[in-house]
Amino acid sequence: MAASIARRFGTTLVCVSVDTSLVDLGTRPDGSVMMEPIDPDTADTTPRGLSDGDETTVRAAASTYGVDVSFVPRIGDASRALSQVAEDRDAVMLVVGTRTAGGRIAEFFTGSVAARLAHQQHRPVLVVPVDPVGFDASLPWDTL
């Protein structure tokens, strides 16, 4: 979906992955980011990005629609990170997906990233369902 929208706007698809297990503590004078794990029993401060399989899937979708794609890893609060990337790149809109059933428990405690984006920043937010219920026919974006 996001790749077809990028094609329509004649822009690059920017795929942002946010590692929420790390917290951003600010920037050092040299420009590097200070980060710490949320879990005090973890010493790993290497941000996790997309898996190789997910990155391959995104590249294939971008290729299908003839758009360039860039990958931007971030850490911390997902809605803040996405908003900041959108601001840095002067994005026209944010396209986000909904969570699968397993992610709904985490969403209960942390809140919906899509809802927080829609309420806390000035760009339009397009929310794409992962698995729509009650649709037997093709979805609008299947024909894009």
How does the SSE layout of this entry go?
Elements: H1 2-9, E1 13-19, E2 22-27, E3 33-37, H2 52-64, E4 69-75, H3 78-89, E5 94-97, H4 103-110, H5 113-120, E6 125-128
Parallel strand pairs: 1-4, 5-6
Antiparallel strand pairs: 2-3
Q: Could you characterize the architecture of this molecule?
A:
The protein has helices at about 1-10, 50-65, 80-90, 105-110, 115-120, and strands at about 15-20, 20-25, 35, 70-75, 95, 125-130. With about 140 residues, it is an alpha/beta fold. It has one domain: HUPs (Rossmann fold). The protein has a two-stranded parallel sheet with strand order 1-4. The chain has a two-stranded antiparallel sheet with strand order 2-3. A hairpin with a 5-residue loop joins strand 2 and strand 3 (about 35). Helix 3 (about 80-90) crosses helix 5.
Key structural traits:
144 residues, alpha/beta, Rossmann fold, two-stranded antiparallel sheet, 34% helix, UspA, Nucleotide-binding universal stress UspA family protein
CATH fold annotation: Rossmann fold
Please state roughly what percent of the residues sit in beta strands, choosing from under 5%, 5-15%, 15-25%, 25-35%, 35-45% or over 45%: 15-25%
Report the sheet with the most strands, covering strand number, pairing sense and barrel closure: 2 strands, parallel
Query: What structural class results from the helix and strand content?
Result: alpha/beta
Order of helices and strands: HEEEHEHEHHE
Number of domains: 1
Straight-line N-to-C gap: 8 Å
CATH superfamily: HUPs
Helix content: 25-40%
Region (Disordered): 29-54
Organism: Microlunatus kandeliicorticis
Pfam families: Usp
Domain UspA: 1-129
